[in-house]
Amino acid sequence: MAPNHPIPTAPCKNPVGPAAKLPCAPPTARSSSGQNLPDNFALLQRSVKCDAHQVILAVLQLPLFAQAVIGFCRVAAGIPGTQADRARYLGTMQLRFADQADFPCIAKQKGLFDSLTATLPVIDRDAANDSTNIQSFLTFADAILKIEKNRCKVQCQREAEVQRQWEAEVQHQREAEE
């Protein structure tokens, strides 16, 4: 669902098309040294294809998308205030997907699993009760973490099977030599 109020875009350009509805970064997203951090909203815009209702139809650039999400997580971790404030900030990404077809590829992106794992404990999941955008972020994060955990489990099972096969082969060679 698109918000009922206009959301400013970065930096003071006339909004064009559905992607212009994504909000700009709040002042808390600026570093204390005066340097601007990467514009995670712009990265997010460039990395996805959305419909008129801001539903993500496809992730066009996986590394760029992951960089944007990781950037949002880093900024959220540094936001002073409550866990609900951090959750609301993450909800501004509006990560509503038409489907989860891209999720296995997204889950493989370097640093994303660790970033989401570190972020979830510092946000208020109860804030999702009042916001579909926060619910969408939590659904995305939970799905990515589950996919990656399952991938690790399967990889461990495969490695164990290879080890068993190798041990059986060694045992068979020993028996053949005797």
Q: What do you see in this structure?
A:
The protein is built from 6 helices and 2 strands. It is elongated. The chain has a two-stranded antiparallel ribbon with strand order 1-2. By secondary structure, it is mainly α. Helix 1 packs antiparallel against helix 2 and helix 2 (62-78) runs antiparallel to helix 3 (83-91). The chain has helices spanning 40-47, 62-78, 83-91, 103-107, 112-119, 132-177; strands at residues 48-50, 56-59. Mean pLDDT is 80; it is low at 1-35.
Characteristic key phrases:
178 residues; mainly alpha; two-stranded antiparallel ribbon; 2 strands
Tell me briefly what this model is:
With 178 residues, the chain is mainly alpha-helical. The chain has helices spanning 40-47, 62-78, 83-91, 103-107, 112-119, 132-177; strands at 48-50, 56-59.
Whole-number mean pLDDT: 80
Q: Which H/E pattern describes the elements?
A: HEEHHHHH
State the secondary-structure class. Answer: mainly alpha
Coarse morphology: elongated
Distance between the termini: 73 Å
Low-confidence stretches: 1-35
Radius of gyration: 21 Å
Q: How many helical elements?
A: 6
What summary fits the major beta sheet?
A: 2 strands, antiparallel
Question: What is the number of beta strands?
Answer: 2
Strand order of the largest sheet: 1-2
Q: For this entry, what is the oligomeric state of its chains? A: single chain
- Strand-residue fraction? under 5%
Helicity, as a percent range: 40-55%
